[in-house]
Design goal:
mainly alpha, about 80% helix, globular
Length: about 450
Amino acid sequence: MANQGGSLKRTIAVSLTNYLDAGAIVAGASGLTLWQKYLGLSEVHLGWLNFISANCLGAALGAIIGGFLADKYGRKFIYTYNLIVYMAGVLLIMCSMNFPMLLAGFLVTGISVGIGVPASWTYISESSENDKRGRNICISQMSWGVGPMIILLLGMFFAPGGYLFGWVESLAHAVGGADLAGDALNVFSSRVVFFSLFVVAFIAWNMQRKLEESNEWKATREAAKEKGEDTGLMHAFSVLFSNKTAVKTVCYLVAIYLTWNLVASVMGFFQPHIYETAGGVDNEQANWMNCIQWAIIVVTTLGLSALIDRVSHKLVYVLGLLVAISAWVIIVGIGVNGPAGLWAFSILWGIEGGLSVQIFYALWGSELFPARFRAGAQGLMFFIVRSLSAVWGLVFTYIYGEQGEGFTIAAYCMIALLVISLIVGVIGCPNTRGKSLEQIARERYGDS
């Protein structure tokens, strides 16, 4: 069917899901040391927070649910209800007084993030013009960079010693009493940062619930009803796994995304903590480096959005991973415990983030499956990737050590994973640029 025009406005509304996804991860990461001191958490506790968060298992559980719900009930169904769950999770984190509360808040928020991601990328592709699908995915990815950048800035301004900590201190005393002091007072800055996500989620919910349903989903659903086809969730799941092309596509996309995401998920959650422990910088310096890195990601992604529908996808894919591998090779060579190594890594990892594998995973994941199980396939893949990333996050804390003594070994693991993503991606890179979703589906699955 024909692509819908005027897709930019819808892309921006849906892209707020990515802002909230990355924002939740970085809000937790930027305040990790504060929560650690306030609740007396160990590195293992931090590993569990990462394990069940929007970075890993929470998002994985949400994705497997949200993907098939989006195929069964429509993309709009997700946008009508999902962010209510997100706001509940963020509210729980804001009010946390102990580790179980904090853990539960991270889990609920993560589940909501996972529910929204498959519907987000699917909806963007289905509502995009053929020659702007890559651009719109890049814009969506750019919000994944804007979120952390803003959250890190807020984290630094509100942090103890920050420009706005006096305001946080006044608010904390008004809420917690005049006797509030020490770590209990300092962690209030993280509570305020999470409140900012609550506000954005409320705005996004009001925008997204007004979106029109995807025309392609409606057409697919009507055709299925006319033919009397089963539209149940289990049937869609069985259809996905009974199709050899679909299974091969799932394996390919999981391979390139998993090997990249095992690295990116660790850096998304632990990077400021790594800079503080292995790198030896203070919390403010770590957050500034991370913030500048996210600004580089945003600028790079914006530049790619103007080119991606006109240049070779394989070329950009290779370039991004070569930069990523170079970042890790350099920091191993220079050393992590010095400003030169940290800054070199931050800049190169920022460029990589703007050309990241996630852009191509989102693009190809929404292009290479037919509409009837497009979101479900993405939910399944996201579940696999984030679940294994959760396990890797726990393993990483043991490799890394309490004060970063295992950083070099961890770095070599990261390089190996990125090399695998590069090789597999080059071998299986699809040729979809400029084609309609219908044309891609016919080429891969036949006229049926």
